[in-house]
Structure to design on (185 residues):
């Protein structure tokens, strides 16, 4: 009888284990946004200081950069898929905001990848792949479902939007995100 009661109690607790919140941080950005370029080191520091097991995902938006907005989303997805995002994101921000050389086509984007050590064949093989197209679709769904209209924007646990303009220091930003991660409603 004790075994049956223990089994029933364990079965009742299984949904609670699966219902535990998955903590995460989501950054919405655009390579064309000068504020995002300046905020990139702050976001990188936050990522290093997040509690263990808490992922920080980036979500490029398509609404900046005119026809190149969607192309730059695709560039981010390719960089992520090829595991070179950490190298390519600073290079793209530098190209656009420091060198003032704005990509005008996919060929220009590909050249940034090649200049940063990614073989052209790898870029070509990934850019129109099912995986990259799926990532871009997810970026668009996230942007729409969270009603993102400006960047940079940081969403914590899928419900807390951090107002970047109210942040006065890196430490305050890190503490606020950690507080929101731990907050239980």
């Amino acid at each position: 009888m004790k075994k049956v009661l223990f089994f029933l109690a364990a079965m009742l607790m299984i949904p609670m284990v699966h219902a535990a919140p998955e903590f995460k941080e989501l950054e919405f950005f655009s390579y064309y946004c000068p504020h995002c370029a300046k905020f990139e080191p702050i976001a990188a520091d936050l990522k290093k200081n997040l509690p263990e097991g808490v992922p920080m995902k980036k979500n490029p938006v398509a609404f900046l950069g005119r026809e190149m907005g969607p192309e730059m989303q695709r560039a981010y997805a390719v960089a992520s898929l090829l595991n070179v995002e950490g190298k390519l994101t600073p290079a793209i921000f530098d190209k656009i905001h420091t060198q003032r050389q704005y990509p005008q086509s996919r060929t220009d984007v590909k050249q940034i990848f090649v200049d940063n050590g990614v073989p052209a064949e790898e870029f070509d093989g990934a850019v129109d792949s099912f995986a990259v197209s799926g990532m871009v679709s997810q970026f668009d769904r996230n942007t729409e479902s969270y009603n993102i209209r400006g960047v940079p924007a940081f969403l914590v646990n899928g419900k807390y939007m951090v107002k970047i303009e109210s942040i006065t220091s890196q430490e305050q930003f890190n503490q606020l995100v950690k507080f929101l991660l731990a907050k239980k409603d």
Notes: Helices lie at 2-18, 34-49, 68-81, 85-98, 106-115, 120-127, 130-145, 170-182. The beta strands are 25-29, 56-60, 153-156, 160-162. The longest strand covers residues 25-29.
